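Weekly sync, protein design subgroup
Attendees: M.S., D.O., the rotation student, P.L. (late)

Item 1: inverse folding check
M.S. brought a backbone from last month's batch and wanted to see whether the design step gives back something sensible before we order anything. D.O. pointed out we never logged the input encoding, so this time it goes straight into the notes. Structure tokens as presented (479 positions):
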């Protein structure tokens, strides 16, 4: 007879009481493994075509009818987390053949994780995800590199979100101009919309600088050498148009702005960088609660890794029937808990009615308006997100060495952001006191919340000695 885990959730959101935090589920599973004879060591390796290899070792219950369901949940959710945290197109499994076969079925062309197989494997790393058995795992092979912190000279930084574009002009580390423009890129089919929109933000900032020495940007999605590989911002672009126009988008802009140093990275990495720079400390996990969820990580050494840190896709809620991600179809992943999507999802349970056609950004504005008036319905939404965050940070701490968690993004603007952090801290202190002693949660001030990423993005490229000679000219229309 299959065994069941005994899990007690002390903090249940009033508007989402069925939450089953991954941190608590995994804690109960680990206790069952320790208490069961014959537990096995399971080895996992994620490999990329460029030779990068990430390894992870854990223990599982012995295979058999009593344990197979729990093992399936534990390992499938673990591998899903690792793939979106670190990234790879080959999954090697050692120590348990049945588990390897289960994972291979999940990542088959029509398997449970067919979306990840194609989206993460083929589109990001050049081949569909494949799972195979390995008698012995290959050694880990990964790198770190410094990121940003260059503020000398005249710089432009921009941040591209799902509902707005932000830009800042910076001279020797001092912001002389910042700007925010609404846009709606999600389902835009014309690549020129992105090209001209980004250039418009750069142009606005350039008007406040005597010259341009470097341009840095952050944007949602996966970027390799400033080249977009995938991203929610471009989901409306056909794959041929994406390959033809979007992959070279930022190199085209670099040329039109005089060939100055130009670097674009995932917005989550810039979130973490902004936190590290403002705190003057490292081991920072940055989480931005915007249209979706962005995350990034600065190591204890102050560097970034080649990891993806796409926490929008990692599982954090293990309940049956958890809210499904609209894109991947996977239930219980971060985007449904740390974003404007989460706010919108919780509106009916909180008793707040909005027009069905109201955009996510406007729904958030309505909740913020109610929160500013002290409406308890809005408070319940922010408390729920705070509970999600508290349990989420405990889960993330199993995969990251963290001293600071920087929480920002449009969802955290206003008094609701303070309630989110206070609630998360309460959950940590109650359920995970050792982590609460070690990890500090922080939100930046209002100006840093709204423009901090654009400012940190300006520091990404290293400018040549003597300054740049960038030109203030708009790019031609895409051909």
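Designed sequence read out in the meeting:
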């Amino acid at each position: 007879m299959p065994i069941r885990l005994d899990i007690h959730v002390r903090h249940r959101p009033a508007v989402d009481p069925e939450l089953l935090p991954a941190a608590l589920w995994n804690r109960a599973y680990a206790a069952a493994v320790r208490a069961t004879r014959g537990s096995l060591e399971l080895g996992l390796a994620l490999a990329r075509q460029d030779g990068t290899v990430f390894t992870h070792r854990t223990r599982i219950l012995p295979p058999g009818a009593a344990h197979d369901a729990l093992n399936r949940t534990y390992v499938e959710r673990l591998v899903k987390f690792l793939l979106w945290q670190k990234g790879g197109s080959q999954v090697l499994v050692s120590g348990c053949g049945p588990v390897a076969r289960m994972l291979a079925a999940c990542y088959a062309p029509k398997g449970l994780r067919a979306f990840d197989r194609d989206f993460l494997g083929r589109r990001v790393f050049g081949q569909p995800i494949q799972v195979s058995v390995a008698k012995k795992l290959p050694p880990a092979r990964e790198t770190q590199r410094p990121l940003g912190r260059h503020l000398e000279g005249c710089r432009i930084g921009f941040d591209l979100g799902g509902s707005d574009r932000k830009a800042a002009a910076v001279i020797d580390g001092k912001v002389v101009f910042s700007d925010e423009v609404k846009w709606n890129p999600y389902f835009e089919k014309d690549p020129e919309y992105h090209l001209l929109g980004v250039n418009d933000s750069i142009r606005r900032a350039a008007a406040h600088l005597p010259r341009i020495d470097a341009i840095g940007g952050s944007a949602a999605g996966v970027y390799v050498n400033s080249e977009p590989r995938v991203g929610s911002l471009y989901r409306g672009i056909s794959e041929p148009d994406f390959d033809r126009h979007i992959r070279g988008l930022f190199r085209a802009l670099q040329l039109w702005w005089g060939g100055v140093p130009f670097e674009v990275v995932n917005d989550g990495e810039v979130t973490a960088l902004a936190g590290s720079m403002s705190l003057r400390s490292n081991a920072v996990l940055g989480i931005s609660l915007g249209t979706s969820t962005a995350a990034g990580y600065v190591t204890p050494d102050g560097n970034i890794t080649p990891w993806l840190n796409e926490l929008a896709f990692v599982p954090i809620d293990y309940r049956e029937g958890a809210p499904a991600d609209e894109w991947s179809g996977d239930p219980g992943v971060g985007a449904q808990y740390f974003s404007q999507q989460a706010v919108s999802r919780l509106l009916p349970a909180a008793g707040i009615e909005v027009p069905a056609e109201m955009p996510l950004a406007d729904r958030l504005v309505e909740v913020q308006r109610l929160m500013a008036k002290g409406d308890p319905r809005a408070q319940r939404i922010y408390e729920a997100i705070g509970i999600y965050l508290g349990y989420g940070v405990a889960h993330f701490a199993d995969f990251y060495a963290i001293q600071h968690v920087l929480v920002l993004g449009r969802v955290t603007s206003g008094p609701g952001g303070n309630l989110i952090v206070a609630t998360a801290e309460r959950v940590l202190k109650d359920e995970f006191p050792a982590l609460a002693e070690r990890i500090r949660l922080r939100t930046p001030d209002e100006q840093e919340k709204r423009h901090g990423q654009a400012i940190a993005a300006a520091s990404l490229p290293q400018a040549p000695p003597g300054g740049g000679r960038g030109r203030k000219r708009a790019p031609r229309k895409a051909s």
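Discussion: Confidence is low (pLDDT under 50) at residues 472-479. The chain has two domains: 36-133, 143-479.
Action: P.L. to compare against the previous round before Friday.
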